[in-house]
Amino acid sequence: MAKSGLFAIRDVGSLIHETAEEGTELKKAVGVVQLTAMGVGAIIGTGIFVVIGKGSGIAGPAVVLSFALAAVACVFSALSYAELASSIPVSGSAYTYTYATMGEIVAWIIGWDLILEYGVSVAGIAIGWGGNLNAFLDAAFGVALPDAISKSPEDGGVFNLPAVFIVLAITLLLIRGVTESARANLVMVVVKLVVLIFFLAVAFANFSTGNFHPFAPAGVDGVTAAAAIIFFAYIGFDAVSTGSEEARNPARDLPWAIIGSLGICTVFYILTAVGALGIASPDQMKDSDAPLAAALDQGAGMSWAAGILALGAVVAITSVVLVIFYGQTRIFFAMCRDGLLPRRMAKVNPRYGTPARLTVVLGVLIAVLAALIPLGTIVELVNIGTLFAFVLVNIGVIVLRRTKPDMPRPYRVPWSPVLPLIGIGFAVYLMSDLPLDTWIRFGVWLVAGLVIYALYGYRHSRLRQEAAAAPSAARPEDDPS
């Protein structure tokens, strides 16, 4: 018997059936190539263009091992996402999977967590986009936008116009349709991979092993400490699962896209780390905001290439904004359709096949956030939110294997529950390394979410309303005799 009350569980068949309801039916328009490109688009962003310098400053040349270790930490959760995405092809990602395994209150908590994670992430990435746009304009044309329209009030400006521009531009693209968004993302992914291939070609043409000694100056501790930072450069593959409902063949395509995008990015990350160290020392990169450009400038003597790397960074970050914002809208859409947030927001535009109203509201809110607020350390909330989701998704696989053993699973995590348990262990370990302030902010956000659930979500829950209506619908008519 299904749990009731706060821990009421959504039936998987019912979740899938609702995806075909008139008025809330999303357009099935993306295949494995577009889905994989979404994953690559979400993962390869500021991480590869920035974090490599910070990681090498901690681990030295052994940062190559840190990239591999971070990938291993992600792969266990990626396998669990692949199983649940292929088995429950419904928008909402970790929120929906939790609703089907651990109940409504836990689903609300993770959904509320993901709203913060994705929303803060989009705003923060948009601010980073503005900074990289200025770097590109300076490197290519020797000009830059004035502080008044490129920084928040707290940072000495009036508002961040580039951040507002990119958020609103992506909002319009997402309203137009998932097909158009996926095509634009695919083009941007190709551009940034070409830029990275250009970097690799130059780096290996000027390669030297001199910078690899000593290989691990900080030992194993340095490798693991750097991996904890580099881990967040891999975040994004989970956004692929938010596209479950719009995939033409989710059972086949989603596992390939989730695991494939993580694999592609891992190869590029490790090759880029090796190439960068082949032309520049960790000391030359560790303090730079653009370590790859610094490696080309100081190591290969190609200062003109900084403009190309800056352009690659702008394109890379644009695709990250697109995919993460897309994921935000689909999670919000699923919560609205379930009644935990206003259901009228889940209305799909009949012309574009997208939740246009919801997308506009989120776009405006995120644009205001990006324009006026310097995010600073609050971005660490993205990290704790993502790791929290990883924990619940891995638990979800274990729970569904026990409660629904006969449910069709096009993809199955091998050696379950061992691999999901390892995924949980990695996530908890990395969460334990986050600052106390981050935990406090996270706790405050969750408490605020529980208040909203108590005042609105609990009473308006579609599952609870349908359960209340069922007994009266089944009651026989009074006998007139």
Please give a quick description of this structure.
With 481 residues, the protein is an all-alpha fold. The protein is built from 18 helices and no strands. The protein has one domain (5-466): Up-down Bundle (Amino acid/polyamine transporter I), CATH 1.20.1740.10.
Fraction of residues in β-strands:
under 5%
> Which CATH class is shown?
Mainly Alpha
The ordered string of helix (H) and strand (E) elements is HHHHHHHHHHHHHHHHHH
Which overall shape is indicated by the principal axes computed on the Cα atoms? globular
The biggest beta sheet reads: none
Low-pLDDT sequence parts: 474-481
Description:
This is Amino acid permease. InterPro entries: AA/rel_permease1 (IPR002293). The chain is mainly α and 481 residues long. The protein has one domain: Amino acid/polyamine transporter I. It is 68% helix and 0% strand. The protein is built from 18 helices and no strands. Helix 4 runs antiparallel to helix 10. The radius of gyration is 23 Å and the shape is globular.
Feature tags:
single chain; 481 residues; mainly alpha; Amino acid/polyamine transporter I; transmembrane; amino acid transmembrane transporter activity
Secondary structure layout:
Blueprint: H1 12-18, H2 32-43, H3 46-59, H4 63-87, H5 94-99, H6 104-141, H7 161-176, H8 178-205, H9 219-230, H10 250-279, H11 282-285, H12 291-299, H13 305-337, H14 356-372, H15 380-403, H16 418-432, H17 436-460, H18 462-474
Helix pairs in contact: 2-8, 2-10, 2-13, 3-9, 4-9, 4-10, 4-15, 4-16, 6-7, 6-13, 6-14, 6-15, 6-17, 7-8, 7-13, 7-14, 8-10, 8-13, 10-12, 12-13, 13-14, 15-16, 15-17
